[in-house]
Each structure stands twice: as C-alpha cells, then as structure tokens.
Amino acid sequence: MDVAEFRTTNAPRVGSQSPPGQGGGGYTLPAVRISNEDILFCIDVGPETMVEMKVNGPNGRPYTRLESIKQAIMLFVHAKLSINSDHRFAFCALAKSTYWLRKEFSSEVDAASAALRGLSVESSPSQADLSQLFKVATHEAKKSRAQNRIFRLIFIYCRSSMKPLFQLPSTLRLFTLDVMYLHDKPGPENCPQTVYDTLVEALEKICEYEGYIFESGQGLTRALFRDMCKLLCHPQQRSIQDEFDLPKPLAKKSSAVDPAQGEENAIVITQ
User: Fold this and answer.
1) CB-CB contact of 168 with 53 (8 Å)
2) Which parts of 5-131 are beta strand (E)?
3) Bridge partners of 38?
4) CA-closest candidate to residue 176, choices 206, 217, 143
5) Distance (Å, rounded) from C-alpha 149 to C-alpha 141?
6) 213-216 and 176-182 as β-strands: parallel, antiparallel, unpaired?
7) Helix (H) or strand (E) holding 225
8) According to the model, what pLDDT value does residue 4 have?
9) Distance between first and last Cα of the chain
10) What is the longest distance spanned by two Cα atoms in the chain?
C-alpha cells in the first residue's frame, strides 16, 4: 500500500524561499511505503480468562473475559479489513506455553471466527512462559518481511497472580508487540503491577515500531473495546503512546467523577 504524495499551497515549500511579494509557496510530502500487516493474535486461556465482566449477555448471565475478548477481536478484524482488505490474521493461544489455533494467515473473516471458536480454557493455573511465543513471532516475522509485509503480535493476557517468564529471541526488532492486559485488583494473592512491568519490559526490548500496552482492572467491556480500537493504528504511522490521547472527549469533563468511568480512577498502573 502506497500513501499518495500530498501537496498544499498554504505553506512555504520545504527548503525553498517564497517568491518576492507572495505570502507563501507550497510544500510536498513525498510518497511513503506503508506495508500490509500480518497480525498474530495470542489469547491467554488460563483460568482467569473466565472471570466475569460487569456486563450481562442476552441470557442475563455476565460475559466472561474470554467472551468479551472474542467480541473485541472480531470488532478489530472487521474494522481493520474495512481499512485495508490486504491485512491478514492468524491465531494462537497461551496456556503454560503457546499453541496454534490457526497458523495460516488469512484475510477471511470466517477464518478468524472459526479460530476463536477453537479456544478452550485451562482448568489449572500455571505460570506462563512467553519464550516460545516470541520465538514463533520472530520466525513468522521473517517470512512476512520476505513478502514486503510487516508483522505484529497482539497479546491479550489475563493473569494477575504470577508474572510471565520469557527469554528474548536471538534476533530483536523484527516485529511490533501490542499488549492488552485484563487483571484483577491488587491484593495478597495478586500482583498486577509486577505483571504489567514485566510486559512493558518485553515490549520495550522487542518492538520494531512503537508498541502499545493497555490495561484494565475494572471488568468493563467498553474499556476493552475502546483500547482494541486504538490498536487499529498502523505501527508505521504511530505516535509514541505517551502522546496518544484518543479518543478525544466530546465535552469538558465535570469536576465530579462519573461512576461509569470508574475503571480509570480505581487503580493506577505506572509504566
């Protein structure tokens, strides 16, 4: 995909002077190559993915984290393909280690839906090891680069009691890592801040382009969907996360705290 050359006459041309007596010339932004993406989703299937969210489904039962994650991923796939139908997706899951749900990258929505139906939750808790996941992502990234594509790993993690383990691959900066972290509140048996810090460490050492990490500990599906929509940003067109302040509020926030926005006030995780 090529971004077309953009011209304007509202500003002086870069590197040139405006003609005498004229208020301005023009400038040109050169065409830039924006690569199609191969996106690998990795979904945590530890027992904590069955924690209930604070939104009920049609049958009156609350959605679980896993059900909400599936909905958010399908929202992402539909939106991403509406932007560029040449993006492709594959899927894997994380129990103690990583295994494939769908290894072949595809632009078909039905293929994404079928892969997510294959998810099953582990019954016993375990400490996750991300080493194999990063090894797989590095291998797949090399294949994507050979096709003039870029590779992104979107990792969705739900464990609060144990930080994940990982060994870095021998070759770094071949792909971009995004993380969605759904966690429980801090407590005697939970250490979400330690887990978050570990995920940030991995992200900072691995990413080819700017990687984003979002967290939520309040069980609100709208927070998950909002952050998943932020990940629609193409890695080659991103600002750094500290400067990423979307979505913009439609009205000034009142000084009183809106109870519906509790997920942004109850816990602060620092990076």
Assistant:
1) no
2) 6-8, 27-29, 32-33, 37-44, 52-56, 62-64, 88-94, 98-106
3) 88, 151
4) 206
5) 9
6) parallel
7) helix 221-230
8) 39
9) 34
10) 77
Burial of residue 104 (CB within 10 Å: 0-12, 13-18, 19+) is exposed
From the list 93, 88, 66, the residue with the least C-alpha distance to 77 is 88
Would you give the DSSP letter of residue 59? T
pLDDT of residue 84: 96
User: Which residue positions in the chain have pLDDT lower than 70?
Assistant: 1-30, 246-271
The predicted pLDDT at position 264 comes to 43
Mapping DSSP to helix (H, G, I), strand (E, B) and coil, where does residue 70 land? helix
SS3 200: helix
Tell me, what amino acid is at 144? Answer: S
CA dihedral 144, 168, 176, 65 (to 10 degrees): 110
Q: What does the block give as tokens for 23?
A: 């208020």
Between CA 145 and CA 38 the distance in angstroms is 10
Quote the CA–CA distance of 94 and 96 in Å, as a whole number: 6
